[in-house]
Structures are given as structure tokens and as C-alpha cells.
Design a protein that fits this description.
The protein is of the alpha/beta class and 194 residues long. The chain is 43% helix and 14% strand. Helix 3 links the parallel strand 1 and strand 2. InterPro entries: Bact_response_regulator (IPR050595), CheY-like_superfamily (IPR011006), Sig_transdc_resp-reg_receiver (IPR001789).
């Protein structure tokens, strides 16, 4: 925490749960720990996204000190709010996050940066000529080391076979499930063989 109160001890009221004399940096660390515990216990996704947005400015300031990641998480979702939520969740990883609102833009990005894309998180139903399943098949063929995660608010049709190694997460998805796949993409860039 920066500012004039950084090293000043906290002087709360007598009924205050914080310890008297606790520095604001320590309070911030305690709050961050509580937040981490809430996320691990299943904080609702919309609340988690709101907390992350509040925290974005501070993370951006700290990002200047870190080397930028060359690995990318590509979010392909035509609904702006859902795309923003997925991007917020994936910003918690070491991956750089890029969002696209249709499969054509995603393919264009992949043509230029395909070797950097570790994870593609795509909705099956997309606006445009190509849907998410067609996009997943193209990625599996052209960029086989990219981890594919497809999502939808409806069950997969019996004829819709996922490409080998792709994962389906039904909507509404949990942030934990998305983060788990992002972790797999960073640890093991090659999709599992079934």
C-alpha cells in the first residue's frame, strides 16, 4: 500500500477486531489472505470479478516490475459481460489475456501469435460464420499444443465431438475450473492424450 499512512500504525476503536498498532500494510496482507481463503471456498464468480476489477490498478502498477509473460490465454466469447468475467478470472494467472468476440478474430490472432497461445477458452455459440466447436477443431489441427476449453449454456449435441484433449465446462462455469485449466496450460502445454 502506498501513501502517507503506509507505515503508520492503525488506531482502531476498542471494539475493533483489528489489533491496535497494526500497520496498514499488515492489514492489507490480512485482507488479501481472507480474500484468498474466500476464493478457495467458492466466492461467487460475479463478486470475485468485482473484487478483481477493484484490484486491477494496483496489479498494473506492479506489472511494470515483472517481466511480461509471452504466453497468452485467448478468450473467445461474444457476450461482453461474460468475456469480461472470463478475462478477469484469467488475469489472475501468469498468462497474458486477449479477448475476441468471434471465432474469425480469434483465428486472425492465432495466425499472428499462435505459438504464444497456451490456452483458448471459447464459447460454443458465437456470433459470426464460425462457431466455437469449429474454432476448436481448427485450433486442434493447426496449433495442437494449445489447451482447448469450450463452454456453453446448453449441453453438447450428440454429434458434437470435442477435439482430442479439449475440455468442456458447462455454463455457468466456476472460476476455479477455468483457473485449473489455465494452470494445466502453463504447466503442461501439450494437451493430454485420451
Amino acid at each position: 500500500m502506498k501513501g502517507p499512512f503506509r507505515d503508520r500504525p492503525y488506531e482502531g476503536r476498542g471494539d475493533d477486531p483489528l489489533l491496535p498498532g497494526m500497520k496498514l500494510d499488515q492489514i492489507g496482507q490480512a485482507l488479501a489472505s481472507c480474500y484468498d481463503n474466500l476464493v478457495a471456498e467458492g466466492l461467487p464468480d460475479h463478486l470475485a470479478a468485482l473484487v478483481r476489477r477493484v484490484d486491477r490498478a494496483e496489479r498494473a502498477a506492479h506489472a511494470k516490475d515483472r517481466a511480461p509473460s509471452s504466453r497468452v490465454a485467448l478468450v473467445v466469447e461474444d457476450e461482453q459481460e461474460t468475456r469480461d468475467l472470463a478475462e478477469s478470472v484469467l488475469e489472475e494467472t501468469d498468462l497474458r489475456v486477449v479477448g475476441c468476440d468471434n471465432a474469425e478474430k480469434a483465428l486472425s490472432y492465432l495466425q499472428d501469435h499462435g505459438g504464444d497461445v497456451a490456452l483458448v477458452f471459447a464459447d460454443i455459440r458465437l456470433a459470426g460464420a464460425m462457431d466455437g466447436m469449429q474454432l476448436a477443431r481448427a485450433i486442434a489441427t493447426l496449433w495442437p499444443c494449445t489447451r482447448l476449453v469450450v463452454t456453453s449454456g446448453v449441453d453438447l449435441d450428440p454429434g458434437d465431438d470435442l477435439p482430442e484433449g479439449a475440455v468442456f465446462i458447462p455454463k455457468p462455469w466456476r472460476a476455479f475450473d477455468v483457473l485449473k485449466e489455465a494452470d494445466r496450460a502453463t504447466r503442461d502445454p501439450t494437451p493430454p492424450v485420451s
